[in-house]
Every structure is written in C-alpha cells, then in structure tokens.
C-alpha cells in the first residue's frame, strides 16, 4: 500500500489468484481502478506473460455494458500490470454464499445480463471458459452484473500453435466446467452456456448439480453421471416442469443437446421463471461452503 506503479497509487489489496494480485488503486486520469499485477515469480514465464497479455487483448475487444472495461496494460519497475474499470458491488459468489438461494425474478435478471455479456464475447470469437460467480461482479442496489477476468479465455478458431494449454489438460473451475472440457479439447461457446446453467441452478437452489467429496469423485460424476434434476436438488423446493426442462437442457452432457446460443438459454430460463408463481422460501445455505474449497480453478 502506498506504492505508485505508473501513476497508479495502490490503496489496498482486494484479491489474489495463482497468477496475479489485484489491488484497488487511484490514477490522476482514470480515477479508481482495479490494478491486476502479474506475480513476480511469473514475469519471466513466457506462457504466463502471453496469457496476461491475451487477457488484456480480449478485454479491449469485448465492449459491453455488462463487461468490466479494460483500461490499459503496461509495465513499470519490473512489474507487469493490467488496469481495469472499478465496478461497484461484490463478487456474486460472496452474495450467494451470504444469502443462499435467490428469488426467481432476480435469477432471471442475472442470467440475462450474464448471457448478454458472454454473447458479446462470443461475437468476437472468444469463449470465456471460466464463467462462475467468482468472476462476476454484482451490484445488488442496481441489480447489475459485470463480467470480468478473461484470464483463460480462448478463441476456438485459433491454430494449435497458438494454444497455451497442452492437449489432455483442461482449464476452468471444476464445479462449473462443461464435461467436454475435461478431455482437454478447445471448447466452443456452448461450454459457457453449460457454466451459466450451473450458475442458474446454484442461484435457484443454493446447491450445485453435482456434489462430491473429492476432486476425483467430481471428475467421475461429470464424466459418467447425469446432474441431479433441479426439482430434486433441495427437499421441499420445487419449480415448474418448464423451468427444470430449461435448466437441464443447458446442462446437457452433449453440446449439441443444449440451446443454439447462450442468449437463447437465458431467454428461455427467464420466461419460464417469470411464468410460474412465486415458489416457497427455500432453505438457506446449501453445500456451497463445504465443496468450494475442493474444486478451485485449474489453469494448467
């Protein structure tokens, strides 16, 4: 704190990951920003540097009201940094962990906003690959969602020589990753739809479509078992048959069995949720806190 990096005055640390630290910082022109700084141990790692630069490139290309704006990428004092817009609110993960299941109208709105942001990415030929509540900023006062972190996003049409992930290794977060990603192939846009369907399932119920005691069990379930039907997720919590059909279609094992596009899924979900009467209050909490620690991001 108190350090100045290329005119960005660091105020405090707000997050950290395997590749970077994130700080709140002020700039004389840009005002308050989120400053992402590549970890020192990775600044000479070619793959880490290219991925960091690619994150900035994708951020510049994807411009949408529900996407946090990328301001600049640069280097100073031996540090590689990325400045992005400071978005008000909290990570959706923190809100969900605190409140439990969300009201259906709120889930409909959140899903539509996420889908619009991701669709803007898809229109640029970019698949996010790590869509999850930890990568979504939610301003509950204004009911606004903002997508962030293109750290492991990719372009499916790129040549193999441009890939940063070795064959046979997947990237993403196990609780939200599409089954087809587990083989290490470069997934298409429907993989993001699967992740959004998982987010919707979680926001509606407070639990995930798969639960397991270990990473190994989770991998096995994803590869061999269907997800728990929405209406069997939490005893006493039920949704209309159409809501369940839409969510489970988004969670289909085969990409071709899902909706044609992510906005198609979100529109169908919102319509089905808003068409049903208000459900009984669900039990709060759920299994999120128990399983989250088991399945962190894989970025290999």
Beginning-to-end CA distance, first to last residue: 31 Å
Number of helices: 8
The CATH architecture term of the largest domain is Orthogonal Bundle
**Main β-sheet: number of strands, strand sense, barrel status?**
6 strands, antiparallel
β-strand percent reads 15-25%
The CATH superfamily of the largest domain bears the name: Transferase(Phosphotransferase) domain 1
Structure description:
The protein is α+β, with helices and mostly antiparallel strands. Helix content is 33%, strand content 19%. The chain has two domains: 4-85, Phosphorylase Kinase, domain 1 (2-Layer Sandwich); 90-299, Transferase(Phosphotransferase) domain 1 (Transferase(Phosphotransferase), domain 1, Orthogonal Bundle), CATH 1.10.510. The chain has helices spanning 46-61, 92-99, 104-123, 190-205, 215-224, 241-250, 262-275, 288-291, and strands spanning 4-5, 8-16, 20-27, 31-38, 70-76, 79-85, 90-91, 136-139, 144-147, 171-173, 297-299. Strands 1-2-3-4-6-5 form a six-stranded antiparallel beta sheet, covered by helices on one side. It has a three-stranded antiparallel beta sheet with strand order 7-8-9. The longest helix has 20 residues, at 104-123. Mean pLDDT is 88; it is low at 160-168 and 287-295.
Quick synopsis:
With 300 residues, the chain is an alpha+beta fold. The protein folds into 2 domains: 4-85, Phosphorylase Kinase, domain 1; 90-299, Transferase(Phosphotransferase) domain 1 (Transferase(Phosphotransferase), domain 1, Orthogonal Bundle).
